[in-house]
Amino acid sequence: MGDINSGEIFCVGINHESAPVSVREQMAIPESKLGEKCSLITKKEEFHEAVIISTCNRIEIYTVANSDEFSKLEECFAFLYGEEEMKSLPFYKFRGSEMMNHLCRVASGLDSMILGETEILGQVKKSYAAAHLAGQTSRYLNKLFQNVFKIAKYVRTNSKITRGATSVGAAGVDLAEKIFGNLKDCNVMILGAGQMGAMVAKTLAGRGVKGLVVSSRSHDKAIALAEEMNGKAYEFEEGLTRLFEADILITATSSPHTLLTKEQIVPAIRKRRGRPLFIIDIAVPRDVDEGIARVPGVYLYDMDALQRITVSAHARREEQIIICEDLISTEVAKLELDISSRNTKKYPDQGDDPLPTV
Amino acid sequence: MDRDRLFLVCAAVFFCGGFLYAITSLRNGHYKKSVWNFLAMFLGLVFQSMFLAERGQVHERCPVTNLLEILIFVSWSMVIIYLLFGSSYRLSLMGVFTSPLVLIICIIAALVPFDKDQAIKAAADLGGAETWTELHIGVSLISYGSFGMACVAGLMFLLQEHHVRSGKLETLFYHLPPMHNLSKAVFRLMFFGVILLAAGIFSAEKIPPKGGSHPLWPLYAIWILYAVICFVGFFRGIVARRLAQFAVFAFLISFLSLLIISWN
Question: Rounded to two decimals, what is the model's pTM?
Fold first, then answer.
């Protein structure tokens, strides 16, 4: 890294709004290479410090340079990927408070495809950690990123931007956790070995369920899915006779008619001695007779019900954008003042930096 | 205003304040584990205790000689049970539901016409402090407090179930405990109440017979009602919704039994 007496932090990048996935996938940088790629930028005399954020939705470079370098910022991408490919890309560039606002929005999930998603903060932290470990950050970016992490946490705590399930799987998990509490004592049964059922079951299994059983008319598929998810496979008919063992039942078969009727569920519920049964019916046409929802102790959700939950969660998150942006503006104003006051001081050696908390 | 009534008003103010604070913070989405609600409940309990201590000194016995004192004793037990068990079972929001119920009981108690001289005379008629009598009254009314808290947990369960069934995952849905935890709390509180009421009835049978004592049949009826449901729940299992509905219904019946006992 070169020395600089007074610099400015710039951001240049593309995201899911400015570039299609076909472009983003070609530019994606694996986490293990982030540090190395940052050094390609800081090797150039005019750029000091660099952090690259590379996720499925964005590739952004944060770097420090003299003010007049802003117009040449796209060159950073040229250092990484070569000149030719970079000319026609729709880059966005930010500096000053706009840049800080942007990074805070990114870290808080306001700029994500799924509004308010929480994974992005971890990804930004990892990107920063990779650059820092490779010795590519110093006073400016350390200060910026560490403060942005605090702001993102503050925004999450003081708003409801992360609240509510925005996917069918997450809605299923939210409901299951409010019915059973700890999912570690729950057995999950999947009727049908299709992709949708597997997706919801994987989300639930991610929370550490007790046992998982797959039952399908195609027993080979059931075995394959069960092995993938570390569960057991039952023949379809056996699965139906063992319904009482399941706490969470996911039905996702391609059956053209109703598979589970009230007459089948009521004896299973009796055997459960009062323990509730949570049914997620994501098959179309539905596998479960809707009258089952009226059986005490049964909680039945079909695809429409789960989608209604995700739609209303998304709407509520959108209502939170203004609150989050106000919080960010206030915090960014403080941070900007702090960083600009440091601009007048001599830029220190990298060795002077305290280890950041990531 | 008498000093004891003043204590009661202070207790009601704290219960009301804690409730309003919790509701406001819930509506604004800032409710966490409400320390202020917990503190308000604790201060309300302190004033209730001061009321009961004042009455105890006047009567020179356990201060349960009329409907007002019985209601305050039951609500006092409910607050103690909440403070002891509510937070340890991660049921912090229980305070938000307990405080309005306790507040209502306090208000009803404050509105009950009360003749202090007559109460002192009634207490004197009942005789001074006697071990079995004190034990019977204290333990029985704490069991009613436990049934009251089962009713609160039952109401919370029914509310959470409504959210889950309707798919309306709003603020309260995220703050209310899981239904499984609530139904466990309902069962445990009822079971705790059944044990205490059994001890209360047993000690009542040991009291030497004399005039002015209350009939025991309402207590037996309440005990059988709760014992049957606990037995069925334990040995056969009950759907949690039914258990919650029962906890609410049975507490209303228990409340009526208190009226019957106090009028005799």
Answer: 0.76
Note the ipTM here.
Answer: 0.79
List of residues 6+ apart from A270 with CB closer than 8 A: none
Rounded Cα distance, B247 and B236, in Å: 17
User: Which residue in A94, A86, A110, A122 sits closest to A12, CA to CA?
Assistant: A94
- Cα angle for residues B26, B243, A291 (degrees, 5° grid): 90
B contact residues 165-204, partner A, Cβ 8 Å cutoff: 165, 167-169, 173-174, 176-181
Alpha helices in chain A (DSSP H): 21-27, 34-42, 75-81, 83-86, 96-108, 119-133, 139-157, 168-180, 195-205, 219-228, 236-241, 262-271, 303-343
Residues B259, B67 contacting (CB under 8 angstroms): yes
Alpha helix (H) residue ranges in A206-302 = 219-228, 236-241, 262-271
Tell me the per-residue pLDDT of A144-161, one tens digit each, with 9 for 90 and over: 999 999 999 999 988 888
Active site residue A56: yes
Instruction: Report yes or no: A248 and A186 within 8 Å, Cβ to Cβ.
Output: yes
Question: Is the distance from CB of B82 to CB of B62 less than 8 angstroms?
Answer: no
Lateral strand order in the sheet of A92-95: A48-54, A58-65, A8-15, A92-95
Preferred mutation among A159, A167, A168, A178 to probe B, highest tally of B CBs within 10 A? A178
